[in-house]
Amino acid sequence: MMPRFCPIFAAALAALSVPALAQVPAPPRANSVAVAGPGYADLADLILAAPVIADATVRSTVTLKGADAAGVAPGHTRLYVEADVAALVRGAGGLPPRIGYLLDAAPDASGRMPKYKKARVLIFARPVAATPGQVQLVAPDAQLAWSPEADQRVRRIARELVAPDAPPTITGINNAFHVPGALPGEGETQLFLSTGNGAPVSLSVLRRPGEQTRWAVALSEIVDEAAAPPAPDTLLWYRLACSLPPRLPEHAIASLSADDAAVAAEDYAFVLASLGRCGRTRSAG
Fold this sequence. Notes:
Blueprint: H1 6-15, H2 40-49, E1 52-64, E2 77-90, E3 98-105, E4 120-127, E5 135-137, E6 143-145, H3 148-162, E7 170-180, E8 187-195, E9 201-207, E10 214-218, H4 235-241, H5 258-275
Antiparallel strand pairs: 1-2, 1-4, 2-3, 4-5, 4-6, 7-8, 8-9, 9-10
Helix pairs in contact: 2-3
């Protein structure tokens, strides 16, 4: 016998278009102690994808079967979740006090399905068109266990993304130049990046004999003498560490001599090593 609110299921199912969950980590059990949670890059990916971010408490879950659970990855269970919204972190159109959404849940390490009822969660979602109160998670893992630390990190990243001086999306490297200095081993490399909105972003690497190699990033046409590398776990760090290619593209160094191109490539590798790994553990899409 279908639940009395099956039209809601139908609307939610029609909106569901998430990838398979085979490699998505199991959500934490509702009564488990919160762990460190996703890193900066994973959180930023979710926040960028989600027009709606809410702090909510799960009121109820209903297990869906048969046609309502079509496409669920092996070993997973599709749930229809109703949750009470406590706070809206992001969402220009607002949300009603109670929302519903679909969640494909994976078993925990012991093979048991999570118990979500009364769990406080952060959800990253988009509204379902023409269906008030229904949202669609932006990814299979877009429901996270709430904790004060997770809430603070999500809000901080969300503020960074909408700040007037937020760094743009990095889409590639336009050109690289290297100017040797007067002394052996001395020189400066400049890398001019392409961005999603056309805003200028450049990297400069300075080598001087007897000194540590230094690099900096500039978000304007002029490289400030006080410019420095971005601090880890900031939006500028994320834009660079998670977007820069693993090596200089050939077109960026096509106009350089072989020696200058080799130094530019070495300096670029130094920048990547200084930034460190992006740390993304999930698909950004």
